[in-house]
Amino acid sequence: MPQLNAALNIIAxxxxxxxxxxxxxxxxxxxxxxxxxxxxxxxxxxxxxxxxAQSLEEADYxxxxxxxxxxxxxxxxxxxxxxxxxxxxxxxxxxxGTLLRPGEYLVLPNHAxxxxxxxxxxxxxxxxxxxxxxxxxxxxxxxxxxxxxxGSTGTGTSFSVVDGKKIKVGDILQILTASQEYVRVSAISxxxxxxxxxxxxxxxxxGLFGGVTATNHSxxxxxxxxxxxxxxxxxxxxSVVQTDSTGNYLCTNLWGDExxxxxxxxxxxxxxxxxxxxxxxxxxxxxxxxxxxxxxxANTKVGLTASTAYQLTVNCDAAGAQSxxxxxxxxxxxxxxxxxxxxxxxxxxxxxxxxxxxxxxxxKKVSIGLVGGDIRVTSGxxxxxxxxxxxxxxxxxxxxxxxxxxxxxxxxxxxxxxxxPNDTNIMDGLAIPNLDAFTFDNGYGVLYGVGxxxxxxxxxxxxxxxxxxxxxxxxxxxxxxxxxxxxTIASTSLRAIIAIRVRSTSPIKNSTVQILAFN
Length: 519
What we know:
The protein is mainly β. The chain has three domains: 3-123 and 493-518, Sandwich (Jelly Rolls); 129-284 and 436-479, no CATH class; 288-411, no CATH class. The chain contains two helices and 36 strands. The chain has an eight-stranded antiparallel beta sheet with strand order 12-34-20-30-31-32-33-19, with no helix packed on it. Strand 30 (438-441) and strand 31 (446-449) form a beta hairpin. It starts with a strand and ends with a strand.
């Protein structure tokens, strides 16, 4: 894939300023045109929409350069947008003009340029803050019920929907009848050809993700947007929105119908999609319980006896108390001085329970370690329900509690439940953004921070890789904005420069302008 490398170096006195841009591109648009001073201008380039002559579907970099000895007037034709909830657009045009004198150039980093009705921020839109899901929706694993269908019989691959503007190509849909069928949307067409996709015809791939195969559905069947982790390839794998055991999550419509306020694929009712760099994902911190000690180190001895079996119970995520037994080493009685020390032995016992059939800790990760000079037992799941409860054991081994420096079980610290982290931390009296707790998007649809992945600004489809395993999360973003949508910035011609038009400012001499654009 070819690469664009652009550099602007400015030397002003003793100071040097360097501005660099590097990106891959698939298409190059290049035109050099000599123009007269016609009052109606000459169109040199158009952007957005379908591919056609003198046009580029999208542009991530545009350069206009006057290569002649005569000034040129540049007119940028823009789409007018009106501030609202969501923002809406007009099919008319607004124009912004400037001059390019000989040897001057104008660079735009992308083709997103609009005319906005107010002096407020167009990209502010409507903030969806710390989006979580209700107990009702979570228990059924869907984010929205959006429409109804006509009958769909046998192995047919298309059906009608009442409100097609809330569905995107690539969506996973659940047709809710007596038999639940999951389908993937491959195409949407505007049935009435009036631009509002109400009604619409949806073409799908049928019988997916372990639901029923293609089956009959009655007229008026409800359609849901499922939000379960599609990376698991099984619709009933989880009962909440969470990553899998490798920290991965995939969903085509996690947001439900939020961010889908426009009219189908052409946004004919207003602004669809999400604003680049507005996405923030916050991950649950796991529940834990501490012993209530202080000043402990790896080499601390807490008064346990050598070669003695001790026991306690651990209840992780309310799965039930499980008895844990371990035997101290004959010589190493430190907390964590070696692999034979006390904490590693308890950890080994916990790890064994993870694989033990019939154990309440089967497939429940639990860790024990030193944190801030105390012994902490932590749930390995970052679910909203994650918790640890330590207790006495009814077995035959010596109970751990009340031995040496270990407090009686009634004196240990109160358990701390799972929680979402604070947006800011207070350090030396200052509020510091808690950036390490988040996953962000970089404005190009790439997720970074905790884990990595991608976000589609148009549909809201999200893919997370390598984040915390078995973790729930909340998510924030800005929608309903004239500057939201797919691609690097703009999704269609609605948010793009419609056209670049040029004329000479001289009634005698022509001027020549070169335009380069990359997608």
